[in-house]
Specification:
Helix content: under 10%
Order of helices and strands: HEEEEEEEEEEEEEEEEEEEEEEEEEEEEE
Largest sheet: 5 strands, antiparallel
Distance between the termini: 26 Å
Radius of gyration: 19 Å
């Protein structure tokens, strides 16, 4: 309770200051955190299944994936499947995919309706980020700290292609409008554009001044792809040409970012205990405020229906997910 109160006070103070420096403000209300049963460690990727009203969280420390009802905040289920990382949704065949590293290298296949493990896909390498091509029913799985992306047919759970890449791929996203994959690479300060039909690399776009880009978000309607560097720089690139159209200063050591297309805000999470809120009403983007959040909250997910922002973090005693909602 003392932790929650200190977080709420910090959030209130920081967002009030942010509102004072911007007419649009950056007010978020923190709700009581949800305890997630733990082992020593941390969280990794998070994703909101908007249709099922569910938050999916890779709880790497507990070697599990947690499913949380976004309306009630209740933990629905926790599956112990290994050292979990990337998450992808196959809405057509009602499946979740979760990549793992550690002692076993698999992609777990979970029934989207029952939350039961229905299959495992054995992989030759540890798996980090996952991305799903819903047009072709193909899953793209990144080798953790490696130089390969594996392409898996969802209907058969079989590897059908291997894409060689630079070292250490990070966040990726598939854009249905352009029919392209956009993938960050921390070692080259760049983003690759990949054709899902041929699996060929079509372009290499610099993310500078954003160095070691982790966070990535695609805005199909605006024609922008965002990349966040660990050095405190955010870039907006034209989704067709890769031309840098805008930059903004954000907090340092950002890992994941989440885009609210309705409110035109981008949330950038740093494990240093900071959440940068950026106005992305193009062509100009600008930092609204950087808000104090619990340390370790480097993962972020957005509920597109409500605009709620979800963070995950751990303390010495327990691990939590927390919901932050925009003020009316």
């Amino acid at each position: 309770m003392r932790l929650l109160m200190s977080v709420l006070v910090a959030l209130t103070a920081a967002t009030t200051a942010g509102a004072m420096t911007s007419a649009r403000g950056a007010v978020l209300e923190a709700h009581p955190p949800v305890v997630v049963p733990r082992a020593n460690g941390f969280f990794d990727y998070m994703l909101v299944d908007a249709e099922r009203r569910r938050l999916i969280v890779s709880h790497t420390g507990s070697q599990s994936v947690a499913f949380i009802d976004v309306a009630s905040g209740k933990l629905q289920r926790q599956l112990y499947i290994g050292t979990t990382h990337g998450i992808a949704i196959d809405a057509h065949d009602e499946r979740y995919y979760i990549g793992t590293s550690g002692a076993t290298h698999i992609i777990a296949v979970v029934d989207r309706r029952t939350l039961r493990l229905v299959a495992t896909i054995s992989m030759p390498v540890p798996i980090d980020a996952l991305t799903f091509d819903d047009r072709r029913g193909m899953l793209y799985a990144d080798e953790d700290n490696g130089d390969t992306i594996w392409v898996i047919a969802a209907r058969t759970n079989q590897v059908v292609a291997r894409i060689r890449t630079p070292q250490d791929s990070d966040k990726a996203d598939y854009d249905h409008a352009t029919d392209r994959f956009y993938q960050n690479f921390t070692t080259i300060n760049a983003m690759l554009v990949i054709d899902p039909q041929s699996h060929a690399t079509l372009a290499r776009w610099s993310t500078l001044p954003a160095r070691k880009p982790h966070g990535l978000a695609v805005d199909s309607k605006a024609g922008i792809v965002y990349a966040a560097g660990v050095n405190g720089a955010l870039v907006a690139l034209d989704i067709h040409t890769g031309r840098r159209v805008a930059t903004a200063a954000i907090t340092k050591n950002v890992d994941q970012i989440a885009l609210d297309t309705r409110r035109r805000r981008l949330y950038c999470a740093s494990g240093d205990g900071q959440l940068s809120v950026v106005d992305v009403r193009t062509p100009h983007i600008a930092l609204i405020a950087t808000i104090a959040v619990p340390r370790g909250a480097h993962t972020v997910a957005l509920d597109p229906q409500t605009g709620a922002v979800w963070l995950s973090y751990g303390t010495e005693h327990d691990d939590y997910v927390m919901r932050l909602t925009p003020s009316p």
